[in-house]
Amino acid sequence: MYQHLLGLESPRLGGRSAWRVAEVRLDVGAETIEVVAEHPEGTPAAAGCPECGLSLACYDHAPPRKWRHLDSCQFKTYLIASIPRVQCPEHGVRQVGVPWAEGSSRFTLLFERLAIDVLLATQTVKGAMGLLRTNWDQTWNIVQRAVARGKSRKVDGPLPRIGIDEKAFSKGQRYLTLLYDLDHSTVEAISDSNDTEAGIDCFSQLSEGQIASVEAVAMDMSAAYVKAAKAVIPLADQKIVHDRFHVMQLATTAVDQVRRGEHRLLGRGETSPLTKTRYLWLTSLENLNEKQRGLLDEVCEQNLQTGKAWAYKEMLRDLWHHADAASATDYFKDWYKRVIHTKLAPIKKVARTIKQRLANVMSYCTHGITNAVAEGVNSKIMAIKRRVGGYRNKQHFKTAIFFYCGGLNLYP
Ligand SMILES: [Zn+2]
C-alpha cells in the first residue's frame, strides 16, 4: 500500500523505480508511522549521476535520512531511506536524486505542496504550524525554499507600469522600499531604508530589459525616489507620476497640522471646539457617515482655520476628475491662487510643492496610473505584519512579502 501511496511505482516514474518499501513501523503511542524505503545494492540508480545524468550502478548508500510525508489518517508519517550514491568517472561519488523530495528538504514533495497551500490559506506561519504539526523553523524553512524556488523560476517580463513606495516594517522609523508591478499587483523588488540609495537599489534589481520597458512610475513627491528614478530609468522625468493617493496624503497631513496648531491656540491645553475631531478632518467626505457629517457641519460653522484647510483639501480632490491635463491644470491654478492668499501655512506649503512638481502630477492624465493597486498590496502586507505582531527580523519580513505578494510559483 505504501509503495503506491508514496508514488514509488507511479506511471510518472515509468514504473521502473528500483525503490521498494521494506518495512512499515507503527508506533501507536507516539501516533507515528515510519515507512522504510529501500534501494537494493547493485540495482541501477534510476536518476544516474546528478551532475551529468550518466546512468550508473549504485556504488554505496549514504546514512539513512528521514522525510516528513502526508499524515496517514491522524498519524504523522515519515519516510526513511538511505540514498544510493554513484561513482561518476567525472564527478566522483554523488548522491542520486530521489523521486519524492527536493535535494536538501526534510519533507516530501507532497507534504511541501500541502504546507504551501496551508500557509497561503492561513496567511500566518503560526496558523500553518498548528495545522501541519510542524515547528517554526521547519515551517519557515518551507517558506524560504518556496520563495527561492519561485524567484529562480521567475521570468523577467516587461514592466510598463510600476510604483515605488516606502513601508514601515516595525515601530520607530525603520523602513523598506518596495517596487510594485501595478499591472499584476505584485512586489517585484525590496530594499532597505527609504532614501535615494534605497530607490536606486530597488530599480537596479530589475533587468535591463525591464528598465527599458518602464513607461510610468507612480511615487510620492519626496525628492528621494524622484532622484532614484532619474538615476536609473531613461527619460524618467516624462514617466514619473505623483499619484493621487500620495498627493492627497500630503494635503491631509497639512490639514492635521493646521488643526493641531489651532487646537493649541484655542484650547491652551484644555478642550477646544476641535477636541476629538481629528478623524473628521482626516477622512474624505464621502467616507463619513451621516452623524459624522452633521458634526463636521457644526464645527465648520464656527469659521475655524481647520475648516478652511479641510475645504481646500476636499477641493484638491477634484483635480483628478478632469478629462485632460489642460483643464486639470486650469483647475489647479485656480486652486493655487485661492490657497496662496490664505494664512494656512501648511496648506500653502503643499500648494507650492505640487506647483513645483505639477508636470508629474498632471502626467496621471497620460499614464492613468495610481498607486491604488500598490495600496491593495500594502494592506495585504500590513495584515501579514499585524498577524505576527511585526517582524523583528527584517530579512524574514522581506521573505514573507515575496511569499504572499511576489506573484511567484512557489510549489516544488
Ligand atoms: Zn557525472
TrEMBL record:
Naturally occurring in which organism (per UniProt): Pirellulimonas nuda
Designated name of the protein: Transposase
Leader sequence segment: none
Domain Transposase IS204/IS1001/IS1096/IS1165 helix-turn-helix, residue spans: 98-147
NCBIfam families associated with the record: transpos_ISL3 (NF033550)
Segments forming domain Transposase IS204/IS1001/IS1096/IS1165 zinc-finger: 47-91
A family per Pfam: Zn_ribbon_ISL3
Source superkingdom: Bacteria
Chain ranges of the Transposase IS204/IS1001/IS1096/IS1165 DDE domain: 162-401
